[in-house]
Write a structure and sequence with these properties.
By secondary structure, the protein is an alpha+beta fold. The chain is 35% helix and 19% strand. The protein contains four helices and four strands. It has a four-stranded mixed sheet with strand order 2-1-4-3, with helices on one face. Strand 1 and strand 2 form a beta hairpin.
Length: 104
């Protein structure tokens, strides 16, 4: 459901991703998710109506706390996940997408 809303948002804003991966076919586990987060400066995680923002330059959550934000129940990186420069968006929230993606 959220992947469809993310695609719809990107289409409306005419944002074309450089690369798209199918999360069902290309699963990223804990190691890959942590490596990806290690390259980022900011992390936004949408869980329901709650948005968690972490400035990874100033604070580095413990491994388990970070994995809890990044991974879904299957143990792989939650979808949709968008990498926008040094910002990682996990889950879908229209306001956050608008703030982060349309500024670039």
């Amino acid at each position: 459901m959220t992947c469809g809303r993310a695609r719809e948002f990107l289409g409306r804003k005419k944002i074309v991703p450089r690369e798209v991966a199918d999360a069902k076919r290309q699963r990223l586990g804990a190691r890959e998710a942590l490596a990806l987060a290690g390259e980022m400066h900011e992390l936004y995680v949408a869980k329901g109506h709650k948005i968690v923002h972490v400035d990874l330059r100033r604070e580095r959550p413990e491994r388990d706390a970070l994995l809890k934000l990044l991974l879904g129940p299957s143990g792989s990186l939650r979808a949709p996940t968008i990498r926008a420069g040094r910002t990682l968006l996990v889950g879908f929230d229209a306001d956050t997408y608008g703030k982060v993606l349309t500024v670039r």
